[in-house]
Amino acid sequence: MSHFAAIGRVPGDPILGLLDAYRIDSNPAKLDLGVGVYKDASGLTPIPRAVKLAEQRLLETEATKTYIGGHGAPEFGERLLALTFDAGNALLADQLAGATQTPGGTGALRLAGEFVARNLPGRAIWLSNPTWPIHESIFATCGLRVEHYPYVGADNRLDVDAMLDALQRVPAGDVVLLHACCHNPTGFDLSQQDWQRVLEVVKARELLPLIDFAYQGFGDGLDEDAWAVRLFAAELPELLVTSSCSKNFGLYRERTGALIVRAENAEKLIDIRSQLAFLARNLWSTPPSHGAAVVAQILGDAELKTLWAEEVDAMRQRVASLRSGLVAALRPHGLDERLAHVAQQRGMFSYTGLTAEQVARLRNEFSIYLVSSGRASVAGMSEERLDYLAAAIARVCQA
Ligand SMILES: Cc1ncc(COP(=O)(O)O)c(C=O)c1O
Predict the structure, then answer these.
(1) To 10 degrees, the CA torsion angle through 196, 198, 204, 210?
(2) For a FRET experiment, which of 50, 114, 228, 352 has its CA 20 to 30 Å from that of 121?
(3) Ligand 1: which atom is nearest the Cα of residue 244?
(4) How far is the CA of 135 from the centre of ligand 1 (A)?
(5) What are the tens digits of pLDDT across the range 251-300?
(6) Is 132 part of the annotated catalytic residue set?
(7) pTM for this entry
(8) Angle at which helices 227-235 and 192-205 pack, to 10 degrees?
(9) Whose CA is nearest to atom 13 of ligand 1?
């Protein structure tokens, strides 16, 4: 008998499949707008200088490779909390918030899903439609019922009224996942006024927010991007936040992130953290150390922190200028108004509004690769290729 004979294949990640197709494309003009990693003008995903300097220090000072605890390195947790909530926030002094170090933001989402499944049985999780595809599968894998609220209308515009209308009908106690900034995949973010309205519904319906914070610094700035997280933490006694250091610290493969919990009182936080340590022990035992040690070095040193903050600023400004540059390049083709939203969106991605057919033509005729939903990774563009891209978009839009 073969134990494995009945096992079939699951389809590969469509975005990684796109990357494979891009790699074997021999057209020198090819352009990868699929994968969501930041790239500099030379097409590289750089290691920030602050990270390199922190690594040099670690090389000299790190004295052991023994396990770190289930919640990770305490100094990482404390400094990440200060970055998320601001160092002077009373929540921290009152020990109402704690961070559990995880393998990336994905690990934090998995831990959050397991926590809800085990400790809050029967609660569904509500995701924006659309959302990052891994949200869909990760919570389903945890055994949660996954539901959706609308986010973008058929006209490729953020539809806050439809979102609020749907949230108003969510059963009390359910979990609602919100993107703190730089919504993936659309790039459409809520305004401060929109966030206030969402908060009112969350309060009225007694929902538990889970805020995915994967792009701090890529929207409007490190503090600006934390605005909604800080508002919710101030206004609600209970909150989950998943933080990722992959993009803003350029630490992608080092798998660095945290699940942050805000609880009603310090005692309850200890209860919850005991549950998280138990779950983490059964998932990955203890988290990987290196990336978090780098982050702790940077955030704990005024000079490194300033350098890092400047580097995050530079990455954000580059993406913003590519957004406005693309709209400018579309102007001679008469498409700048139709695609004006590209300059208003935030973060790595843009829901361009291009159809699956237009995306296929971009790929087949111009070797320009984007996801079939029309999502383009703006960070994959470069200044000197904007005219080529704009001309290609014009061709597929006009024919
Ligand atoms: C919306 C969102 N959440 C979480 C993550 C988690 O990233 P990582 O696990 O690499 O830290 C990503 C990464 O692409 C993301 O786009």
Answers:
(1) -120
(2) 228
(3) 11
(4) 9
(5) 999 999 999 999 999 999 999 999 999 999 999 999 999 999 999 999 99
(6) yes
(7) 0.96
(8) 30
(9) 214
